[in-house]
Amino acid sequence: MVAIQGKAVVVTGGRRGLGAALVDEVLARGAAKVYSTGRSAFSDDRPAVVPHALDVRSAESVAALARTAADAEIVFNNAGILLPGPLLTGDFGDITETFDINVFGPLRVARAFAPILAANGGGALVNMHSVLSWLGGAGAYGASKAAIWSATNSLRSELAAQGTQVLGVHAGFIDTDMVSSMAADKTSPAEVARRIVDGVEDGALEVLADDISVGVKAALSGPVEKLFVALPV
């Protein structure tokens, strides 16, 4: 378990949505410094926040962040993208971009920060999955979240020797711009952030951030044809 008080924290995609809520939550719990990233440069007037432009598709951009945040003790891999479309007929460029951002992006960040976390005492790495990691019907987005879920499970094993807590988060619909056009029950970003940070401080390896995630995980032992969702529009 890793207490937030006094820690240096990285939040990718921290400019808005769940990322912004995570920045707020760790500051409220006494983080000493928060490196908050967005795709382009931005400003934040809070003294403890260090804004940083980051493109998780670029190894060079990730390396630049790692050089700046060499004191990081907790990393939240939150940056992601949702580009709707079916696997068979959707734009293939959208599919590859989805995997580059949602799978390879967090992996680039994990690879860059693993030695930093080791040098700073182990710390924690948090990866955002989705309830759609477990459900068909969400095209490349769901497939990418299934892939990062699998990657997180392997990273947990690989980082265990250096004492890094690896936490995977599953959540349903969070009330952010990403799903603003979808008619569905949504959980507030602040509530999801609270549950995630509770998980870090409790030493959890997995957070099921809402009732739908709890229910779908319980259904994994059932018939595979039941693991499907038609996304609301």
UniProtKB/TrEMBL annotation:
<comment type="similarity">
    <text>Belongs to the short-chain dehydrogenases/reductases (SDR) family.</text>
</comment>
<dbReference type="GO" id="GO:0016491">
    <property type="term" value="F:oxidoreductase activity"/>
</dbReference>
<dbReference type="Pfam" id="PF00106">
    <property type="entry name" value="adh_short"/>
</dbReference>
<protein>
    <submittedName>
        <fullName>Short-chain dehydrogenase</fullName>
    </submittedName>
</protein>
<dbReference type="InterPro" id="IPR036291">
    <property type="entry name" value="NAD(P)-bd_dom_sf"/>
</dbReference>
<dbReference type="InterPro" id="IPR002347">
    <property type="entry name" value="SDR_fam"/>
</dbReference>
<keyword id="KW-0560">Oxidoreductase</keyword>
